[in-house]
From TrEMBL:
Keyword rRNA-binding: no
Transmembrane region(s): 28-45, 52-72, 92-122, 134-160, 172-193, 234-253, 287-304, 324-353, 410-433
Pfam families in UniProt: MatC_N
Protein's UniProt name: Di/tricarboxylate transporter
Keywords: Membrane, Transmembrane, Transmembrane helix
Amino acid sequence: MAVQIIALVVFAAVFVIAEVRRSHIGIVMFAAATGMGLLVAGLALDDIVSGFPIDILILLVGVTFFFGIAKSNGTIGRLVDRALRLVGGNTAALPLTFFVLTGVVSAMGSPLGGLVMAPIGMSVAHRRGIDPMLMALAIGTGLSAGGFAPTSLFGIVTWGTASSAGIALNPLTLFAIAIVANLILLAVSYLLFGARSRTRTTVPAGGAGGGTAGGPVPDDDGPVEREPFRGVQLITVIAMLGLVAAVIVLAVLGNEPDVGVLAFAFGAALTLIDPENGRGALKEIDWSTVLLVGGIITYVGVLQEVGAVDLLGDLAASLTVPVLAALVICAVCGLVSAFASTTGILAALVPLAIPLIAQGGLPGWALICALGVCSSVVDVSPFSTVGATLVATTVDPDERPRMTALLTRWGMSMVVIGPLALVGALVLPAMVIQ
């Protein structure tokens, strides 16, 4: 147990020290993971390094490169212009619109498929003067809501785990709870960040540009006047539609689509067609975010190898007060999911709730729903795939440090608020009724 506790203490200490010294947390964390694994845990170097999330690297590089080409050749600008003309002056409806669009794509099988909306949504936010944090949370909550559809991975894993344990859980109930919870979070996002959007926006109804209280929002996506799509832009639009279609078709066929690999494939085709903009898109790759996520997840891999995550789960399961145990298990799921794969956490930690349910103290359907949603609402943490993509696709590079800080606070607050709200709203009433 000593090794697990030391590993957890060092993990927390690195966060604090790197923040105080204003150093790159990912680089410091990778070094700490290597030192902890070799010197304290006795792990092989290959085992430590294998924890570096190559899949997230591929996703971030592939998506930001592909949409970087679309931005460089002006396609994003044309699409955003058309979208803003359709919406007119109703800027406030844009985050809700992207919540719905992201949720629909996520419901098609792969929750991460919804990330194809991130580059477009963040570009729209930049053009219309919407706080990028509001748009990021709209996309993140939409992804979480759609991911629990009976046809999507989060919903399938959560409902399947409950079903295999003999727990009665209607998948539509799980989906409805996820939608309601994420809509509430979206409403909170409007309250927290909508005011900044309103002060930044000076666009008249029907306009396509954006502005701030001190001047216009810089337009990185090309001219805003209505111009026809050029040939290369039409090809890029076809490629974007092809990317979305590939994600949906693969999911419907029962395969889990890798958005990063698909983005690389379409990006490779575009850079062969348009080499100049392909070269220009390289600067859009946010290597800082890649290193940030990579270093932290590598350390989380060490924590899993030494059994620190299992230690937290066992601690929760050993509590004799059922409601307190439910709170701790939900918090553990949320905390680990903020740094690791939500799907993996659902498959690994949801079974921890089954002994509590078997004892008869907690309603099974309510606890499983709470666990599932608690594991997902933290996904906008910049240390996870979703949050990292939202930071990387933020148009203004000067906004990215702010986005990282705010998404960290939001994600970590959800580790506490999520369990309190969901256990309070689902588990406690169900205990009274049963």
